[in-house]
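Case study: Alpha-ribazole phosphatase.
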Amino acid sequence: MIIYLTRHGETELNKQHKFYGAMDVDLDDKGYEQAQELADKLADCQFQVVISSTLKRAVATTEVILNNRHNIPWIKDPRLNEMDFGAWEGADADQIEAEFPVEWQAWLDDTFGYVPPKAEGFKNFKHRVFSSLDEIVSKYGNQSILIVAHQGVLRLIHQYFDSDSSFYDDNFKAGYYSVINTNNGELSFESNL
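Here is what the predicted structure looks like once written out:
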């Protein structure tokens, strides 16, 4: 199995360093440029299926990548949506710390265990993404696939295949892709960053 991992292009909230996991925002102009750069880089890559998040920023990036590839099946899977940050959606770290000082500190102390107000929480997020990956591996285990998703989702995908990796080991930049190859029973991870 070969998996091409791509992150959606930039959004206005990226530039503002906002938490916006579940917020359904569009790409900005630079995001569309990054999506086109990504499409150009992936032009010679042969994948049999594309799986993306259902959020606008991932869908728009996928549309640009698939512009001339109408014969490739595209599956939109909400389990590949970014983590829902609940009451913190649309705010930056300073705003969150000012409005939720106790909760913010609790999250900094235990990012993977503490659940912010009205948020999904990391444990549920990880379970959701891993359930999608179980299905992907089962259905497409002998194919090359493209996944277009979000920073947190892509980090979890890497962890799914390499349990020794840390969630924060990888930084998936917009406009670039990484490849996980599990052929021949061996794991390799490459990036064009």
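For the exam, be able to explain this: The domain at 2-155+165-191 is CATH 3.40.50.1240 (Rossmann fold).
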